[in-house]
Design brief:
The chain is of the alpha/beta class. The chain has helices spanning about 70-75, 105-110, 115-130, 145-155, 175-200, 200-215, 230, 245-250, 265-275, 280-285, 305-310, 320-325, 340, 350-360, 370, 390-400, 415-420, 425-430; strands at about 5, 10-20, 30-40, 50-55, 80-85, 140-145, 160-165, 255-260, 260-265, 380-385, 405-410. α16 links the parallel β10 and β11 (about 405-410).
Length: about 425
């Protein structure tokens, strides 16, 4: 158990053995890694624990650089555990290099079906008992998908939770996956409209890039295909506080003079690759739609819901935009089948993703009756017109969880927890404590 120090903090490595399938605890086991962080001045104190549940799915926990971002506030009161959820970071990896060893696509999908929120929560319960003892309780901080996990935790094992803070991550308890995307496309369109109003010259640049990609075969630095649809996927940036500005700076470097005419610059392609590649978080793509699968809501498969719903919004069709006068609209947090044919990090997982998309009868992730009688203090930041999580769904869920208090704000976008210097977390702590 390695212990090391950064400015103002002490960090300790923990590794836990957990069952791959919690329904078969005597079967195969995997490892889950977590990093303990405590203020250097309070290293020996018996502080309460705060478990951080990262966004995603498929995102590893933050790698702190001393006392930074929301840790500036958390470490005043807590000993923090940064969890690399199963399959991510330093936990047993699930990616193109490891998953194909499981066998064919069906076998790989069966393995990956054990990486949803219900399994993550059961991992956490084993970890809690090991660190805190059977009667110990800890606090939860769930960001985005981590908030989804927190609601699953409050459904399956509320006795282990002392209090919960959720930021940008109150899911619709009974949202069918098609409806999730049906409400998402208008939100993404509004973010596009705001971006082009802020940077009107970007509309012509985006059309020029999309036209170039339709007329030329272009590859990214890793050899992946860079199509017009992949270019549209850069819209995932638009849901963060600085995302519109980042996209603008990316576009202004798009073209460079070439011997045969304008060409996409190496710097543009490198930046596009850094925002589009799933090499660092393949589970995000593989599991994205399955996080909405619940048999009591819809016993059928998720069936590439984003792709199917996309057809209902022709304004996002790049060829229609190029044939007419409308802007090329960027898409958002949508996963499409073509990504598994063009991204080298996903190509080996293509068959597994197809089997997961066709999988039916996903177990429920939320217990509405348990949440309705919830006794754990909960506070949630709901971001007005959040591009990634539907605000209406979040507020409906807030009304369904007994004792949950909300803070609805347009001061921050979806990344408010990370960029607010601890202010978002401080507000939620004060809400839970009854100070506001």
């Amino acid at each position: 158990m390695a212990v090391y120090r950064q400015p103002g903090t002490v960090l300790t490595d923990h590794t836990f053995d957990v069952p791959l399938d919690h329904a078969a605890p005597g079967g195969e086991r995997i490892q889950v890694y977590a990093r303990e962080v405590v203020a250097a001045s309070r290293e020996r104190e018996p502080l309460p624990w705060l478990l951080f549940l990262q966004g995603g799915p498929g995102g590893r926990s933050p790698r702190p650089l001393g006392r930074d971002t929301w840790l500036t506030r958390a470490l005043d009161d807590y000993r923090v555990l940064l969890l690399d959820q199963r399959g991510t970071g330093r936990s047993t990896p699930a990616n193109r290099q490891t998953v194909p060893a499981r066998g064919d696509g069906a076998a790989q999908a069966e393995y990956l079906a054990r990486f949803r929120a219900d399994s993550i929560v059961r991992d956490c319960e084993l970890i809690r008992r090991e660190l805190l003892g059977g009667d110990g309780q800890w606090s939860l901080l769930g960001q985005s998908f981590g908030g989804f996990c927190a609601l699953t935790y409050l459904s399956l094992a509320p006795g282990g939770v002392r209090e919960a803070f959720i930021t940008g991550g109150l899911p619709g308890l009974r949202s069918e996956v098609g409806d999730v995307y049906r409400s998402a496309f208008p939100r993404v369109e509004r973010k596009n409209t705001a971006h082009y109003a802020r940077y009107p010259e970007d509309a012509d640049t985006a059309r020029a890039v999309a036209r170039h990609l339709r007329d030329h075969e272009v590859t990214l630095p890793d050899g992946g295909l860079f199509t017009a649809e992949a270019f549209q996927a850069l819209g995932i940036l638009l849901g963060t506080g600085t995302g519109s500005h980042t996209l603008h700076y990316l576009l202004e470097d798009a073209f460079i003079p070439g011997p045969a005419g304008p060409a996409l610059s190496d710097s543009f392609l490198a930046e596009a690759h850094s925002n589009l590649s799933f090499a660092a978080n393949p589970l995000y793509a593989v599991l994205h739609e399955s996080i909405y699968g619940q048999r009591s809501v819809s016993p059928g498969c998720t069936g590439w819901a984003a792709q199917a719903t996309h057809l209902e919004f022709p304004q996002f069709d790049v060829d229609k935009a190029l044939a007419g006068h409308g802007p090329v609209l960027f898409t958002g947090e949508m996963i499409y089948p073509w990504m598994f044919a063009g991204d080298p990090a996903l190509i080996p997982l293509q068959e597994a993703a197809r089997h997961l998309a066709l999988r039916e009868d996903w177990p429920d992730l939320y217990d509405a009756a348990q949440l309705a009688r919830n006794e754990v203090p909960v506070a949630a930041a709901v971001y007005h017109d959040d591009m990634y999580v539907d605000t209406a769904d979040s507020l409906a869920t807030a009304r369904s969880v007994r004792g949950l208090r909300t803070w609805v704000t347009d001061e921050y976008e979806h990344d408010g927890l990370r960029v607010s210097g601890g202010r978002v977390l401080d507000r939620l702590i004060r809400l839970v404590r009854g100070e506001l």
